[in-house]
Amino acid sequence: MGAAMTPTRREVLVSGGAIAAGSTFTSIAETRAGSAVDASKADSNSEPLCLTDFEPLAKAKIPPMGWEYMTAGAADELTLKWNSEAYQRLRLKPRILVDVSRLDTSIVLLGRQHSVPILLAPVASHKLYHPEGEIATVRGASSADVTLVVTTPASTSLEDVAAAAKTPLWFQVYVQRDRDFTRALIQRAEKAGYQALCLTVDSPVFGARNREERAHVKYPGLPNLQGLKDSQAGVYLAKGQDIYSPISDPTVTWKTIEWMRSVTKLPIVAKGVLNPDDAELAIKSGVSAIIISNHGGRNLDPLPPTIDVLRQSQTKWPSVFLSWWTAASAGGPTCSRPRARRQCSTDRAALYMGVGRGRRSWSHEGCEHPAARVRNGDGTHRTHQHREH
After folding, report:
1. Catalytic residue among 114, 295, 364, 389, which?
2. pLDDT band at 229 (very low <50, low <70, confident <90, very high)
């Protein structure tokens, strides 16, 4: 194999660090179903070898309320379980004797070059996990040279996140009943330098967050929603007998995308597509990309695993899914082999929200090491789900 002693790409990334990113374009819901991770087994003196090694370390650091919020799914959490199982059914079909001495992981998304096909998924209320919240996350994203998708119900203002960022940002949008407020929010993101809008299209109402309610989750403030009625004090889920959220308009239709296009020059990504027929409608509506997502199993339950939906969509609309920019989100496995299976299936991009808070509980440094694992494909056979919102 030769005697050269130059560092491998893996060694460079592990020593230099990057961030825990994660999910083929999608959400990130981390399932507890079928995954018995015991925090007592975490050894703070040992070196984590794959992302699942970070899980017990993170659980030991993150407050219980934040942990339940992060890992919970909707209703019976069947979707959460099936997301993981679907990846375990996939098999690789490798080709051999191909020159792999010069590897290029870069990809062009929405007209911009990305060093790796990985982004950090939109996740609400990072201050549930760490006092610095989204600021720590975006610093980790910058260290990893990956894009963070900042969410509307973030616990840090979109302007403050942008000020701390050294890599491009996207902004996830919920359309509110008050269209003037939504217009102003979009324009704030555009002014702050965000490069794309990620419109969540699967949440006219939010799912039954049973485990979240049992944990009595209290959200931090929602600075991006200041001035919106009923959004103060971290309120964004429905209360009492009301099924509608104060931050999401249940009347949103395809015409809403046309309206968004009239108020912004940013590309619009539709996140939450599960029906292949909707993929074609999304193109006709003028979106620049779609994210196949079941909201990390946190909205409707049960829903099909999104990796299965992607394969069905490729079969039904090959002109869309083989030539148009797409992404699949199935809650995102956290080790290399499932990630490789997904990349072989989509040949596009992965959107991850890693659980690599580890020893530093979601600090900037705590994000870097897990990201190196994602970028290098290190891992084990075990998978779990990421979560989103």
Report:
1. 295
2. confident
